[in-house]
Amino acid sequence: MTTYDNESSNASFYVKADDGEALQALFLRHCDKEGLMTKDVLQTEISAIRELLEYGDLLQEELDDIWNAAPKFPNVDATDKRIDVDSFIQIYRDIDDIFEEEEDEDKEEQEEDMDTSTMQKEDMQKKEEEEEEDYELDETTTSSENEQELKRSFRAICNDEGLVSKTAMKNWNEIKELLRDEELSEEEFDEMWEKIPKSGGAADLVDVDGFLKFNSALDDLFEYLEEDDNDSDDEVDATQSNKSKEIQVVTPMFYGDDLPPGVVFAELANENALVGLDELKKWGDLQDMLKDGDLLPLELQNMYESIPKAKGSQDGKLDEEGFIQLYDEIYSLFEEVGDDYEDATSVSIEDSNVSNARGTTFSSKNQFLSLLEDLSCGDESRLLCGLDGTESEVQLVLEAATALENEPSNMANDSDKDIQSSDIAGEWELLYTTSSTMKFHKSLSGLVPPNGKFGGLIQKLKASKYLSDTEYVEKINAGPASFEVRVTGDWELRSSVSLFTGSKSVCINVVPDKVSYGLTNQKADHWKSLGPMNLLDISYLDEDLRIMRGTTSTDSIFVFKRIS
Questions:
Q1: How far are the Cα atoms of 145, 287, 453, 476, 518 from residue 481, in angstroms, in the given order?
Q2: Which helix (H) or strand (E) holds 137?
Q3: Which residues contact 432 (CB under 8 A, 6 or more apart)?
Q4: Separation in Å, CA 222 to CA 2, 149, 184, 481, 505
Q5: What is the pLDDT of residues 421-431, one digit of tens each?
Q6: Which residues of 252-278 are buried (b: 16+ CB within 10 A; e: fewer)?
């Protein structure tokens, strides 16, 4: 049974009966706060089952038999029988088996109805097809396996809504390696990204179909390049080919260490005393920067193109003066950013232990908070909490958060102590988020008017022996018409296992009940913009700082600071 489920998001999740991880994710999106599901939810909210019932492909009696055969969660107080995730997967697969059996029966009936002449004709056609397809079989099998692998990769990098952003695509290991090894240029990546269709309602996000089309375009690009290489090779005769092989010598790298730029230029320059992009490939220090991600190829290209070229140079190379200018620009990039963050955090670079692509370092909570403060101040036109954050800013925050999560102060990594509700209870202010859903709606509630602006978010978590209440208070600035949106509901801590790492984790499960603003009160159970905040893993926790990550996309984070 194959289906595209879009009940809880705008995305299309490709779910197959043999994909256990996808079925678990589907169950989590529709189960109740106790991690269980009723029969009514199964047949009304799981779109695949609901549509099979509506079209008569699955009879109600068949579903009843399968439901009755599945183990139920023992709870004598419950009015409706409920199932856990294992029973859900069993039911889903039992339904799938029905259609596989029907397909086999239909095939047998068709074969019995065929007369002898038709059978003979088909046998001849099969023989011809087998002869033609024998050599294609391996390729077809490989193609199918590749598609399944790509879908697994999609689920690993998609956000809470099942969509992939341009940043997530570029940070996917396959793409990062191609860009790092210069097998794919930034311009080629941008061109392919612009051509693939975006998901409905999202300006810069793609679903699984767009993800597959992007990879198809990527394959076509490399096939085209291979064909060009093969055509060029065919035009070269044996003598030229042998000569070419003789001169293909590995060029040794030159490392300047702390040598003056003039000495580095002298070592790299060609016979005309010029340095171009080919000569720069011999500069070991520069190649290490590119390989480690400290300097992006696009940044290098932009700097190189901005520098005046040597007079009379037809291929756009640099003389010594131009090279020294390039040298200074490369190293000043690291010095300027490093100085900025050293001043902001009063922590020396020597004390740091994690570096990002700009030489900025993060090794403490103070540096992380300073980074968030730097990103939010100085421009009143920008939205709060990173709701208009750029791709490079998001990457900086993700790297800093990862570094902080590895600090000894992180209670989430303390195996000797379990996180309790009392550790979480209190009032928390949202400092930053990378959630694509909140960015799309410019708020949590999605109620910002055309001339309004998101004014901040407070999360209140109350915990007692009998009650666990939650309330979000969102400010919407709209001049004289400013107002607050309040979302109330319940919350609980839940032990979980990360779908990405397989390690144990603790998540906060929020069940919103009502959304109130002005004189309006509405039920919140189908308020889709709240979805990304309903189930989040605690990736960092101390006395006054909490970082939450999405359970289906670790690049979607929420940073909260406790209000004194």
A1: 56, 56, 11, 9, 10
A2: helix 116-157
A3: 372, 375, 376, 385, 386, 389, 397, 557, 558, 559
A4: 31, 19, 9, 56, 41
A5: 999 999 999 99
A6: eeeebeeeebeebbeebbeeeebbbee
Beta-carbon contacts of residue 505 (< 8 Å; ≥ 6 apart): 412, 495, 496, 497, 498, 537, 538, 539
Cβ neighbours of residue 545 closer than 8 Å, sequence gap 6 or more: 365, 369, 559, 560, 561, 562
Of the candidates 537, 542, 532, which has an alpha carbon nearest to the alpha carbon of residue 512?
532
Query: Mapping DSSP to helix (H, G, I), strand (E, B) and coil, where does residue 11 land?
Result: coil
Identity of the residue numbered 467:
L
- Strands (DSSP E) along 334-449, which ranges? 426-433
Token output for 183: 């097998």
Structure tokens at 178: 């191609």
Tallying the residues shown for the chain, one arrives at 564
Whole-angstrom distance, CA of residue 529 vs CA of residue 447: 10
For 519-550, the pLDDT digits (tens) are 889 998 878 888 888 889 999 999 999 999 98
- Token pair listed for 186: 């930034």
As a whole number of Å, the CA-based R_g of the chain is 29
